[in-house]
Amino acid sequence: MKFSYSYIKKLVSEGLPKPQKFADEVAMRSFEIEEIQGDMIDIKITANRWSDAACHMGIAREAATIFGLKENFPVIKELPKKTKEQLKVEIRDLSCSRYFGILMDIKNVSVSPAYMQKILTTCGQRPINGIVDILNYVMLETGQPMHAFDADTIEGGIVVRKAKKGEKITTIDNREIKLRPTDTVIADEKKVIAIAGVKGGKETEITSKTKRIIVESACFDAVSIYRTARDIELRTDASQRYGHGVSPETARTGALRAAALISEICGGEVKGYTDVYPKKQAKRVIKFDIARFIKITGVDLKKTQAFSILKKLGFKVLSDDMVEVPPQRLDVEIFEDLVEEVIRIYGLDAVVSTAPIVPLVPPHSDEIFDYKEKVKNAVTALGFDEIYSYSFGEDETSGVELMNPIGQDKRFMRASLMPGIMTAVLGNRRVFDEIRIFEIGKVFDSLGKEHYSLGFAIRSKKDEQAFRTLKGAIAETMKASGIVDIHFVPKADRLMIEIDEKTAGSLKVAEGGKAAYAEINLEIMMMSAEQEFEYKPISQYPSVMRDISVWMPDNGRVGDVMESMEKAGAKDLIDTDLVDHYQGDDGRISATFRLIFQSYEKTLSDGEIDTEMKRITQILSSFPGLEIR
Amino acid sequence: MDLEEIKKNVASEIEQARSGDELEAIRIKYLGRKQGLITEALKSIADMPIEEKKKFGPIIQKAKADIEAAIKFKENEGSSDDFIGDITLPGRKIESGHLNPITKTENEVRRIFEGLNFSVIDGPELEEEKYNFDSLNIPADHPAREMWDTFWLKPEGSSLAKNSVAVKKKYLLRTHTSPVEIRYMETHEPPFQIISPGRTFRYEATDSTHETNFHQLEGLMIGRDISLANFKFIVEEFFRRFFVGKKVTVRFRSSYFPFVEPGVEVDIKLDNGKWLEVGGAGMTHPNVLRAVKYNPREWQGFAFGFGIERLAMIKYGVPDARLFMSGDLKFTKKF
């Protein structure tokens, strides 16, 4: 929110520091400063402080407190006790807590004086005419949103009520708005003349010909105005202010300031006024307990110091350490709010680092964190780089759809890491001859349930069997991640990855073997890994190696041959491996397997191994189409 | 052959040996158990008279020891002619993978906080409105909610809504990891101290400091008398360990977050650099404690939230927040 430094300076006694110094102190104790440009200081008023600080008087009060100055606010001129005319105002909707209306005759709408125009421009407003400028100026000064109607366009008195079904209004900026029965409006006897707290109507707008005006200084319920402005998509300075909450007490200040300035600048005369204020804003009184202040902040302050700060901020200190909150401080509701007021003004630098004294209980973190780290370390050790991709995309599988996506291609929560991983492969393939990447992240199912998933990709420019590297990497990752029982089971065009005989993921080969993608449910992995790993001692007896070469059957799969060998029931066969694999001149595929035998009980004799090998060759010779070389 | 001659021959044979096998042959020739020349010589003195034994024994023993040492020395030297070619050739590239700096930062953060006795807690990314906002003292229809630009899930048409429990609830992508703390408090009794790192989402335009998907670290410590001064200790301790070797200064600025009171902004200064904003914090608001059925008269504490990308950007000097999620391996391989 833009403020005029020179105007703030006028609202306090002599001695306000230069803009930069002023800004530095305000930033530490009150609000962040976005920008300083000449006389303009852009102050980021926090959402809780609009009711008091979103105006020059509010900032001046902060400044006076911070720099030990006095407030130098304009004198509020009372309205005449008696007037000739009556202004009829009726509140029929409880979301309006106060309506201060003033009927004035004016000589002419005029133009606003140069000082006022300068402040308006500094604060980002465009001067329009005398009346409008004065009302904007009063808002910038007091925080009270103001409006004025051309009184000659109004039939009967002012009514604050809910809109009727089907009612419409054309606003000052020529938008036709359909109103709903939940919207609060300002009306006369016949028609809607303004959307309460949001925008005035075209029909009753002030023009250069206007001679009689009704000035509105009202207070509306924050939630009601917030909803209306949001739903009809009409955000105005006024709706923003009301939406954050304005004290009904401020309405009076605004009304009187406006009346005084209009009289002075536009030759105005108050003809009548009505202040409908059915229920006065309740007084808020909070007990200030210095012991609790010290307990919360750790700062050893004296009660008198705390009270002195609160008084400067406009709080009244009553007897028994009770503190009365100024009406415009809608944010102050509880003791802790007072703690903040005192500590921020006193200076947060006074908070001195102190080690907490607590029972020593060892941390009991969720296991997923350590497990993710363990898996990530295993995968990176195998040469895979980690990527992070977006949690939403265009893949509709999850069915979990965003109401307000940032783009049509980012509508659904991901059901798989694959789209993100594939995008990363595409993005990197020109730069790298071999890409090995992985990601761990949450994926979502159609019930909105989420789980951590582990995705891999490999892509090589040359290696037509790159998928085997991925397969091996997955096997090694599993071993390093505490998983003992893992199998690759072929199913249609992919390999299902089974952990403890449960499907945990799959691997898919692409680009004729040069690329492969895999995804595994990390939470299934973690559950399997939780089973205690048990060390099996090394056998003291030598291992024996036997190779066996075969011509593969047409379209036969190595995995099936290896599986049949493993299932042949050969005793002491501890490992089966493919050591050679090529295509012969006649097109047939040759495969050489290495079988390793080892016993825990004795040194195996050649004869014993021959017997076991016989079982294997027997199985192989019954394998359809296979020929032992 | 006399001993001097043997010694001379051995020396030149060892000198000329070009491989381990040749050395082994030399060892067998001279020291072999069956017919080694020195072994033979040792055997022969067994028949000699005692005087000669005394004279030759030590000499032969010494020759044996010398030969053993010479062979060993040669072995260790590694007959250098085995290495044919240019040993200044560059090493073959063996590249391990690289962790994304978000992971590196998160790991580091967890390690430090676990060292400070904090538990690390996980929670859902797809969250209920109640946990993300209401229980954190951010009511509906309040402008304070606008501090968090939120991705909402479609209530109609999504399978979530078909789930009868979900019908009445509004779901969103968590805008911070604070809801994890609410969930934790609902099921645990104080005192405790936790952090919750994880992915968060904001509906906003991306630029060099903003991403729609990013990562956060929230922390919470609740006890009978946990104060703002205690938070200062923890946060200083954290940053000093996180920015190893740098002088870290921490300061608080007054700020506003609905779930804390008082609320502060945390700035740090590294060595004599500029003040950097790193996150928000404050004393847990009594309404938040009440929402999880803690008695605010009995329990108090602090909460804080830092951006993991922000920490990584400061620590590693990454200029653009969009790089973390870019999938660009040129970036990842630098870490």
Question: Can you offer a commentary on this structure?
Answer:
The complex is a heterodimer of chains A (about 625) and B (about 325). Chain A is an alpha+beta fold. The model of chain A has no long low-confidence stretch (mean pLDDT about 95). Chain A has 18 helices and 30 strands. In chain A, α5 packs across α6, α6 packs antiparallel against α9 and α13 runs antiparallel to α15. Chain A starts with a strand and ends with a strand. Chain A has a 7-stranded mixed sheet, sandwiched between helices. Chain A has a 5-stranded mixed sheet with strand order 4-7-10-11-12. Chain A folds into 5 domains: about 70 residues, Phenylalanyl-tRNA Synthetase, Chain B, domain 1 (2-Layer Sandwich); about 190 residues, Phenylalanyl-trna Synthetase, Chain B, domain 3 (Phenylalanyl-tRNA Synthetase, Chain B, domain 3), CATH 3.50.40.10; about 55 residues, no CATH class; about 160 residues, BirA Bifunctional Protein, domain 2 (2-Layer Sandwich); about 80 residues, Alpha-Beta Plaits (2-Layer Sandwich), CATH 3.30.70.380. Chain B has about 325 residues and is of the alpha+beta class. Chain B folds into 2 domains: about 80 residues, no CATH class; about 180 residues, BirA Bifunctional Protein, domain 2 (2-Layer Sandwich), CATH 3.30.930.10. Chain B has 12 helices and 9 strands. In chain B, a hairpin with a 4-residue loop joins β7 and β8. The interface between A and B is large, with 92 and 86 residues.
